[in-house]
Specification:
Two copies of one chain form a homodimer.
Chain A (H helix, E strand, L loop, with lengths): L2 H14 L7 H11 L6 H13 L7 H21 L4 E2 L2 E2 L1 H4 L2 H19 L4 H29 L6 H26 L4 H28 L2 H4 L5 H4 L5 H9 L4 H11 L5 H14 L2 H22 L4 H16 L3
Antiparallel strand pairs in A: 1-2
Helix pairs in contact in A: 1-3, 1-4, 2-6, 3-4, 3-8, 3-16, 4-6, 4-8, 7-8, 8-9, 9-15, 13-14
Organism (chains A, B): Emticicia aquatilis
Protein name (chains A, B): Isoprenyl synthetase
Pfam families (chains A, B): polyprenyl_synt
Chain lengths: ~325, ~325
């Protein structure tokens, strides 16, 4: 089965799903956010994981959509917390409607995600919900750590990796695990799928951090250097502060961090030059590749034919090589 | 079994439940809000409903707590939306911490409610979750209607009753239905429990509306007249505007509604006098009693001994007769 077939099935399901009728303020924002595009990576992972073991991958489409709805619920609420004006180039829900609508519509969206999960077989349902609950709580924990880090000056590399594991990777792990559970693939297989997902998830986030600094402005889609301008504590910044400790580079980096007024382009250029001097890009790429390798090794260990795993490997490689 | 025994079991369960460890900003607000007291009406309804049919009501305690956690999640988020400074006489979560904490801690609280629901038997679990999902979505719908009504001038009595049904009553209905489901009481019985809960729930809200205007300040606990001061579109106000239409009372009522500056006590007194002139208190009490009677008739129809239903009838009568 090709990636396009899976994607088509997911998009058809999204287009035909009604979340509720009225009041419109509650349900329109859900359809709005779900229609803004995105790669649909999470639901793709779920259906692909199912298809590794069984031909009837279609039975995964609804629960896969539950994972996507959950992901978009976190975006709706995170955007309020981060006061983000734009999401995928369009106004965020709290900007287009208002903050109360974004809170309440997000709440009902989380409920909708649970409702989509009811599409799995009765015999696995409770286990799926327990795993979904754990994952959902961890995603919230990750977001809270991320917010806490913004006002802390002692964030370690390990804390950062743990934060992105919680905030973004465990949901990729769960998406894959869910696909395995629906296929009744057994405990070892679902664990390997989960580990594969969390490892490549951490790799993807490190890739995001790298692209933000070194991405090609023509291809990146967002402003290159956004994290630098906002002093976002990415892996690159934390590493630079650590290995540069006591050097002229650290002093310069701190000066840029504390600068109240600055030319954005100049700051991005200067910080990038400091990263270059400290070899941060290579170190970040090594770290990222270590997670990708670990993830791909998990997938390798999975007891299934290379042919069956092919679409998932393909998608992973696309995501590893993406430039935006 | 007496009410006190049920209440004790619920409070013991609350005291021993850990929602999560860290980050503390995420989990402390949950314990804080859960510790602020309240009547624990919803979990009581669940365990009492179970005990109508089976002796082993203890198996309902955890899922009953799930209903209470869900209820408190809605309070945490509603308080943000309503910009409420106090809840049960203590600072609200968004006041004590901040708005982002209240959003995210509320989100994880909803997840905790789902986790507590996993305590029910596998064979009823999916049905319980579907009913819980429906109820949760309706509660959000009710809150959105309530917010919409604040800026509308054409809210009808039926719309108001439907709003309070969604915002507060369906959760009481679900709490009771859940108790019946856990006891495997059968479809007819769980439907009667649900109907009983939604009917008395609407009655309770009408009681709140009446107490806000006519409560004894010594016993009420909150400021009497709060709804009048805020022009809250309660059943009493909507009814007064409708039956007073075209009279001097309507003109006076509208003047108070549109008044920008006023003495609070004077406004409360004046509006109460208008209600008196239009006989609103009696009409509201008739309406309220009709819902109580309907609810109690549902409970009457329930195929169980009077002795078994006694604690539930007792609690209901206490709540019907409460003065705060």
């Amino acid at each position: 089965m090709s990636l396009e077939v899976f994607l088509k099935a997911i998009q058809t399901e999204i287009a035909s799903t009604k979340y509720g009728e009225s009041p419109v303020e509650l349900y329109e924002p859900i359809e709005y956010l779900m229609s803004l595009g995105g790669k649909k990576m999470r639901p793709l992972l779920t259906v692909m994981a199912t298809n590794i073991f069984v031909d009837d991958w279609q039975k995964s489409v609804k629960p896969a959509l539950g994972v996507e709805v959950f992901h978009n619920f976190t975006l709706m609420h995170d955007d309020i917390m981060d006061a983000a004006p734009l999401r995928r180039g369009k106004p965020t829900v709290h900007e287009k409607w208002n903050e109360n609508v974004a809170i309440l519509s997000g709440d009902v969206m989380l409920v909708c995600a649970y409702e989509l999960m009811t599409a799995v077989d009765d015999k696995i349902f409770k286990h799926v919900i327990r795993r979904f609950n754990r994952t959902a709580a961890e995603v919230c924990e990750g977001q809270q750590w991320d917010m806490n880090f913004a006002t802390r000056n002692d964030v370690t590399e390990d804390e950062y990796i743990n934060m992105i594991r919680l905030k973004t990777s465990v949901l990729l792990g769960f998406a894959l695990e869910l696909g395995g559970l629906i296929a009744e693939a057994g405990e070892e297989a679902t664990q390997l799928l989960y580990d594969f997902g969390t490892n490549i998830g951490i790799g993807f986030q490190l890739k995001d951090d790298i692209l933000d600094v070194y991405g090609d402005p023509e291809k990146f889609g967002k402003q290159v250097g956004g994290d630098i301008i906002e002093n976002k504590k990415t892996w690159l910044l934390l590493k630079a502060l650590k290995i540069g400790k006591g050097t002229a580079q650290e002093a310069e980096l701190q000066a840029w961090i504390y600068a109240k007024e600055f030319d954005k382009d100049e700051k991005v250029k200067a910080v990038r030059a400091i990263y270059d001097a400290l070899n941060i890009r290579q170190l970040a790429e090594q770290k990222m590749n270590a997670f990708f390798d670990k993830g791909l090794a998990d997938l390798e260990k999975l007891n299934a034919s290379a042919e069956r795993k092919q679409p998932l490997i393909e998608l992973t490689k696309q995501l590893i090589e993406r430039e935006s």
